[in-house]
Structure prediction request, 259 residues.
Amino acid sequence: MLKTLVVMPTYNEKDNLEPIARRVLATGVAELLIVDDSSPDGTGDIADRLAAADARVHVLHRGGKEGLGVAYLAGFAWARERGYDAIVEMDADGSHQPEALPGMLELLGESDLVLGSRWVAGGRVENWPKRREFLSRGGNLYARLALGIGVKDATGGYRVYRREALDRIGLDNVASHGYCFQLDLVWRALQAGLVVTEVPITFVERTHGVSKMSGGIVRESLLKVTQWGISRRVRSAREVLLHGHRLPSVRETSRIHPA
Prediction:
């Protein structure tokens, strides 16, 4: 059995943290690391109480809110230093269903990165306004066209990495946040030739608290994807001029797991 750690960043999630933590532990397949960015609502205190009551729960307190990507990188480093085999991204707001985790871990036997996907056959979202769905679908379509990838939900935040995959994709110079952070890591995995598998999930919109999504995060994502897409085309054109052939497409390294 893989030694598995769920990394769960938190900021003002006092109403959501304990229920989702208990559901993670109930799966029996993972420990939990809560990465709290000094939440002013007392989320960090709840995390400490959960850790005191169960040795499978760990807490990493950080000095302040620096963004989702930075929090995940801190959690990844903590997990890699302690030799976990599989490292999971999961939101603290209940939108990601921990009950899907055992099945995702099974797929890690033949994959380097397993993505929980809302936009493949069998995947779905609950309680989302049409505007949010349009934004997510449109952003993922733009990423596929700009980067030449086959991944349907590269911005999704429910995913499982092999530790070796994180070792290979170069985390030291990752500086993106939010949706862009998720896309950045998928793009790096594909460029490194890793096997990426998508599995359908049900995404449930939070019932407590406020979403951290903002216009700034969306703009950052669009700008970064455009830059990466231009860079990819420049490199491909250079290969044609120098060697008479294009760079191989990363599309072939991704695949969809059936529902």
